[in-house]
Amino acid sequence: MVVPEECVWDRGILAHKANLFDIQMKCGDVVSRESTEEWILSLPSTPFGEKTPTRRMPEPEEMPSMDTAPRITEAVA
Question: Residue 14 half-sphere exposure, CB side, CA atoms within 13 Å?
Answer without folding.
Answer: 0
